Amino acid sequence: MSAEKKLVGYVCTGCGIGDRLDAKQLLSTAKREGKLQECKQHDMLCNAEGVKLIADDIAAGATHIMIAACSRRAKVEAFHFPDAAMTRANLREGVIWVRPASGENSETTQEMADDYIRMACAELRTINKPSSSGEQSLIKNILVVGGGVTGMTAALEAAAAGYAVTLVEKSGALGGHAALLHKRVPSRAASAGTSNSRNAALPQPAENNVPELVSRVGTTGNISVHLNSSVAKTSGAPGRFSVDIAAESGSTSTGEFGAIIQASGFKPYDAGQLSEFAYGASPDVVTNLELEGLAKAAGDGPIKRPSDGKEVKSVAFIQCAGQRSDTQGHLPYCSGFCCTTSIKQAIYFKDQNPGCDTTILFDDLRTPGAAGEDFYRAGQQKMVTFSKGKATEVVPGSSLKVRFQDLILNEATEMECDLVVLATGMVANSGPDPYAPADAAQVPVASILNLQYRQGTDLPHLKHGFTDSHFICFPYETRRTGIYAAGPLRRPMDMQQAMDDAAGAAMKAIQAVENAGLGRAAHPRSGDLSFPSFRKEGCTQCKRCTVECPFGAINEDEKGYPLYNESRCRRCGTCMGACPVRVISFENYSVESVNQQIKNCNVPDEFQEKPRILVFACENDAYPALDQAAMSGKEITPWARVIPVRCLGSISLSWITDSLNSGYDGVVLMGCRRDDDYQCHFVKGSAMAAERMSKVGDTLSSLNLEPERVVLHEVAITDVERAPKLINDMADTVARIGQSPFKF
Amino acid sequence: MSDLNQNMIEKYRNSFLKEVEANVEEGEWVKMCMQCGVCSGSCPLGKHWAHPPQEIFMMIRAGKREAVLASDAMWMCTSCYNCIVRCPREVPITHIMHGLAHYAKRLGLAPKGQPTMAFSQIFWDNMLKAGRVNELKLGLSLYFKDGFVQGVKNSLANAKLGQNMMKAKRMNAAEFFGGHGVKDVSGLQKMIKKAQELEDARIAKYGN
Predict the structure, then answer these.
(1) Is the model's pLDDT at A181 over the cut of 70?
(2) Which domains does chain B have, with CATH numbers?
(3) Contact A36, A121 (CB under 8 A)
(4) Helix (H) or strand (E) run with residue A257 in it
(5) What is the average pLDDT across A297-310?
(6) Residue of B nearest to A374 (CA)
(7) What is the mean pLDDT of residues A664-686?
(8) A residues 411-430 near B, CB within 8 Å?
(9) Per-window interface: B 61-80 vs A, CB < 8 A
(10) Which of A93, A162, A510, B119 is deepest in the core (most CB within 10 A)?
(11) Do B34 and A386 touch (CB under 8 A)?
């Protein structure tokens, strides 16, 4: 920044801060030690007058502001000053609310507050106001890959919001698997007030509305459909994706897109692996999808069985066929749609011939969706027999014999029927996982997006082939920013859920387009303008940043230097934590900005017996948990100094070694849950940090320090009791093993 | 086995569930059971039953006609109504249990000497005589239902209770000789007889 820096501080004395702390001393600390040109005191900084005071100063030339008041997570609307670089000293949640008010504590409480002022001022001196890289542009075109129910819904939703959509479908027709259905599961519950009686009016199988959806796509002006086409190449980043669409005929067209929705749906499970149920051995054993074909062919007439065209008088449905099982070749998960599908299909038979014996052999019947339970009752009303039993074998013959274990009567038994329907599940139709372990024996699958990313051609998987996303907070975000997964690609689901999913993904894609146009980050640091840059002279081309970036944001240039794609970046700083030579930084967050906070916190000599515990708390979950703890009056040791970090993945090992070298007695790292059921907002950051920290033991032993001085904890946002306790535990540890020998 | 039983077997060869629907009080509800097991878990006597309600319903659907009708499970129901209150599907389980018991008795399949059934029969016969229950005779019939010797033993065991009840005027020894009844006993008996004829006609319709 070429303009002259002007650093101004503000100390708020509201919310009891002024009663508990010596404001005069805080001001003098900020000016003398914090080296601010000016520091002002206000008795309620977040009110209109206080905000105006700051805004006026910024208008008059203040470039950097330090606000010593409440937590950085509080009053964000009031303290929103996009025209200045800002730091916040957390005196309320960080100090007065976690310390008892009694007189004997006032000295340590004041020290805590002074330290937070020093740290905020030190941080302020190292940062600058971020501004967009200007790399992106606003392209209001959205690409939808896949023309099934999910893809069509996403296209219609995005088009209705005014965005031009290009829909690419591999086959020759829109509609996907859903177009093959005879009828669909109802999506609405029985009307309000419907009694629980056995003859209440309940939802029935509904007309398949996929043809209507197809015609709506056809008549919507700003949707252009490419049938018999696939994505040959995708390069770029949100706001500037360049995609080659290859038609089967051989012609290729290139389009520019702001965001991409992948709705490549599912593949039906291969029932050929179910030889125990005589699939393949008897034509009268069919999958649920094949039964839809039989029902469609029958129209409203009786459903005929494939072997001899005989009208089906008795039918058995085997739920969870090849699913929810650890057997090799089976799906370990529940596909979520098959129970309601079997109820629907049983009703096909009952509606045509009430005398047809229909038995559904289930283990756990699950009926998701608004109509679910009512639809189950509708099946029961029609005398569909629901038997809690686990099918073990189907014996082929002119009459099929189904052997099963009755789970209520606890006995092996069997039944005869004309037709057996296997309720088989769905397999995600995803491309190859870029992070699949090299030794995993995988059936090679064709790429769907053909991304020209250094980190692989397709969206990373979580497990079982489903795409990875933060399942609690932002399910549609994938690990490739600007590319949104929707429908059964993300997790198994039914049509209604897929349509809801599609609408959600369309909204996220629109956000991505708009954010990219302004150079802003997507979730979870939405609106952040900062982006990583690196000092080329220092870079050793080790490529760790390109490998460890959870979002595949970093490519390589021809000389092997990292090539950032700012709009792909989620601003977690995992690259910064990865860099062994510490050349990666953000305008408002860097190795130096935290290092200065560590250095400027006062570490008393050992004779004062005031240990210092450094806490790195993830700003997504751990820091809010600490704020929440403060609100509910939990105490935290006066020795702790908390520094919020974007993600544990951004932690540079140098912070830990430097702090221990300069006399800190313990370091506590608090991040999100990692690995399979991770809650890390940056997917891999927390796991990366854990891996890096596993090597910190060597450093500690080389410094002759006890390994328990550095601990890493998984903290959830709900750990209101536990988070402060973890910090206090470290104080106990220090009391037990003694202070650090590295104090001056 | 009765003819009625044979006829019913013929008529509902494939589906005991349909037989239950047509013949058992509230039997149309059996299909609505979703096998959650709350009834079995709620039944204070459930652990003493051979088959708690959830299992009975499953057996009906599985076509286990003999096993259900010959079971003494539904005779164990004390009508506490816990199951009805708790059933998420609002299935009238207590009523179905009594309906099944009644149907089994009508078909002659109920277990011989089942005490609840025996008591019910004694109660009914006793009540028909005078239009009111004669408690003294009811008690004595119950004591002597398993023979004279056992009857004397039962009477002696409860002699104290009997004396106290007489002292408190809760029981009158004179009731042994006739006892009190309704004003128009023959009218009541005619009414019951007519009802029995109607019921027989209804059953005959299914039976043939």
Answers:
(1) yes
(2) 3-111 (1.10.1060.10), 115-198 (no CATH)
(3) yes
(4) strand A252-257
(5) 93
(6) B89
(7) 93
(8) 413
(9) 61-62, 64
(10) A93
(11) yes
Cα A313 to the center of its chain, rounded Å: 48
- Is the Cβ–Cβ distance between A680 and A671 less than 8 Å? yes
Q: What residues contact residue A667 under an 8 Å CB cut-off, 6+ apart?
A: A613, A614, A615, A616, A656, A659, A660, A709, A710, A711
Q: Does A477 touch chain B (CB under 8 A)?
A: no
pLDDT digits (tens, 9 = 90+) for A316-327: 999 999 999 999
Mark yes or no for CB contact B29/A365 under 8 Å: no
Q: Which of 2.40.50, 3.40.50, 2.60.40, 1.10.10 would CATH assign to domain A1-129?
A: 3.40.50
CB contact under 8 A, B17 and A380: no
Instruction: Tell me whether residues A357 and B15 touch, CB distance under 8 A.
Output: yes
Residues A141-265+429-518: name the CATH superfamily: FAD/NAD(P)-binding domain (3.50.50.60)
Q: Is A377 on the interface with B (CB under 8 A)?
A: yes
| CATH code given to domain A533-575 | 3.30.70.20
Q: Please report the residues numbered 657 through 716 in chain A whose beta carbons come closer than 8 angstroms to any beta carbon of chain B.
A: none
- Mean per-residue pLDDT over chain A, rounded: 94
Residue count (chain A): 744
Bridge partner list, B165? none
Closest chain B residue to the Cα of A363, Cα to Cα: B35
- The fold of the A268-426 domain, in CATH, is FAD/NAD(P)-binding domain (3.50.50)
CATH classification for the domain delimited by A603-744, as one of 1.10.3470, 2.30.30, 3.40.50, 3.10.450: 3.40.50
Domain boundaries, chain A: 1-129, 141-265+429-518, 268-426, 533-575, 603-744
Query: Using a CB-CB distance cutoff of 8 angstroms, which residues of chain A are in contact with residue B54?
Result: 408
* Cβ A76 vs Cβ A526: under 8 Å: no
Count chain A–chain B contacts defined by CB atoms under 8 A. Answer: 44
For chain B, the distance separating the N- and C-terminal CA atoms, rounded to the nearest angstrom, is: 16
| A386 with B59: Cβ contact below 8 A | no
Could you check whether A141-265+429-518 and A603-744 share the same CATH topology? no
ipTM of this complex prediction, to 2 decimal places = 0.79
Distance from CA of B139 to the nearest CA of A (A): 39
Contact A289, A180 (CB under 8 A): yes
For residue B18, which residues of chain A lie inside 8 Å, CB to CB? 383
Instruction: With CB atoms and an 8 Å threshold, state whether A365 touches B34.
Output: yes
Do residues A551 and A573 lie in contact, with contact meaning Cβ atoms separated by under 8 Å?
A: no
Confidence of residue A526 (pLDDT cuts 50, 70, 90): confident
pLDDT tens digits, B59-115 = 998 889 999 999 999 999 999 999 999 999 899 999 999 999 999 998 999 999 899
Q: Hey, is the C-beta of B13 within 8 angstroms of any chain A C-beta?
A: no
* CB proximity B85 to A under 8 Å: no
Of A198, A357, A406, the CB nearest to B32: A198
Distances (CA, A) of A723 to A508, A637, A648, A686, A708: 32, 12, 15, 16, 17
pLDDT (0 to 100) of residue B1 = 45
Instruction: Read off φ and ψ for residue A184, nearest 5 degrees.
Output: -120, 160
